[in-house]
Design goal:
Helices cover 70% and strands 0% of the residues. By secondary structure, it is mainly alpha-helical. It has one domain. It is elongated and about 65 Å long. It starts with a helix and ends in a 10-residue tail after the last helix.
Length: 158
């Protein structure tokens, strides 16, 4: 997961290049390329969704630990298992809901709805949601096992 997360973080580089290119073309030539909006959407969407599992692994997400900070270690562990189970449950629901949509988009060769002359295929982009949710579910499962086996990382102090 760590290598994958670092690889996904590199998606920010072409996103920056696309936005800078589009801004320069718009500023100097008053004509931004028609493809930059959709390409930036693809890169940012992929960056955001695929990076979520890495963020979860590193415990870099927003966490409200007002309650857990004041609980004894056994209750902290139980609360950790409960919250990871909730993450796992939600991720599995998202997979269940998004796979049929992604499959249908693949079968019909879905293209962009923005109706620009660029009109790129977007069926592959539909798969980002179930793939990223599968990665989040895997990470939540690993975290549950780590909590059960008492090998969990301590929560960072905020």
């Amino acid at each position: 997961m760590e290598r994958f997360g670092k690889l996904v973080s590199l998606l920010i580089l072409p996103l920056i290049a696309i936005i800078v290119y589009s801004s320069l073309m718009s500023y100097f030539f008053k004509s931004p390329p028609m493809w930059t909006f959709e390409m930036s959407m693809f890169f940012f969407g992929s960056f955001f969704m695929l990076g979520a599992a890495y963020c979860h692994r590193e415990k870099k997400h927003v966490a409200v630990d007002v309650l857990s900070r004041h609980l004894p270690p056994t209750y902290q562990k139980a609360l950790g298992i409960f919250t990871e189970a909730a993450v796992l449950f939600v991720a599995l629901i998202f997979i269940y809901v998004s796979v049929p949509s992604a499959w249908h988009a693949t079968l019909i060769g879905e293209r962009s709805v923005h109706q620009t002359p660029f009109n790129p295929p977007v069926w592959w982009f539909r798969w980002i949601i179930p793939i990223s949710c599968a990665l989040i579910a895997l990470q939540a499962f690993v975290d549950i096992l780590a909590l059960i086996l008492k090998k969990a990382k301590s929560t960072p102090s905020r």
